[in-house]
Amino acid sequence: MSALSPRLAAVLEALPLAPGLRVLEIGGAPGPLARAMAARVSPGGFVLVVDRSQRGVAATRTACATEIAAGVLGVRHASAESFRLEPGEDPFDLVVANRVGALDGRHPALADAALAAIRAATTPGAPLYVDGRPVATL
What we know:
Layout: H1 6-14, E1 22-26, H2 32-41, E2 46-51, H3 54-63, H4 65-70, E3 73-77, E4 94-97, H5 101-104, H6 111-120, E5 127-130, E6 133-137
């Protein structure tokens, strides 16, 4: 695994990661933080990267092929505001977003829809971290 940038390394250290957690990363392409989180939530955990960019999703699939094959990481094409759990999919215990306009104030018109979609996909009380800082309990 390649080294994380100093910014992403700081985000990783700020997160309350533990084996067995299900982590939803919004806007995580091309996957460097997801790979590092997957290592920390194993065994028994899972990280799902959701990104609105088709190109970013493809890059994540390539960069994270080993983790995807091992079943510890997945990737899906969706925006924060359109994300939905798939039928039978378990909710997530922790949500992480970095540089996601709907959550960091750059696109406030999307914030309510993004938070509603994320809340519907998480366990009660799941923390939401935006740019390495806890911002809400869902």
